Amino acid sequence: MYDALKTSICEVVFLKANGDERTMFCTLSPDILGEFEGSSSVPVEDQITVWDIEVDAWRSFKPSKVLSFESLEE
Q1: Cα(24)–Cα(5) distance, rounded to whole angstroms?
Q2: pLDDT tens-digit profile of 29-69?
Q3: From the CB of residue 13, how many other CB atoms can be counted at a distance below 10 Å?
Q4: Which of 17, 40, 59, 65 could connect to 49 by a Cys-Cys bridge, CB 3.0–4.6 Å?
């Protein structure tokens, strides 16, 4: 997941802590992150912090809760 996130925008469908399903379009690509101030939160075990491109903010998800993961760029 990290390799794809570092090179492209990805669609991640996962279960939130409350059990709701969420779809997020996110990235860790330096080309996109260079446009934004600030940094991500402190890393947490079993959690990936990413830039949510729809809300222009840092968000996170747990890999163990991912239902589907797709890179949207080739």
Answers
A1: 12
A2: 988 886 555 555 555 678 999 999 999 899 999 999 999 99
A3: 15
A4: 40
73 by DSSP, 3-state: which?
coil
DSSP 43: P
Tokens of 43: 């890393």
Q: For the beta carbon of residue 32, count every other beta carbon within 10 angstroms.
A: 14
Burial call 38-55: b when 16+ CB within 10 Å, e when fewer: eeeeeeeeeebbbbbeee
Assigned CATH for 2-71: 2.30.30
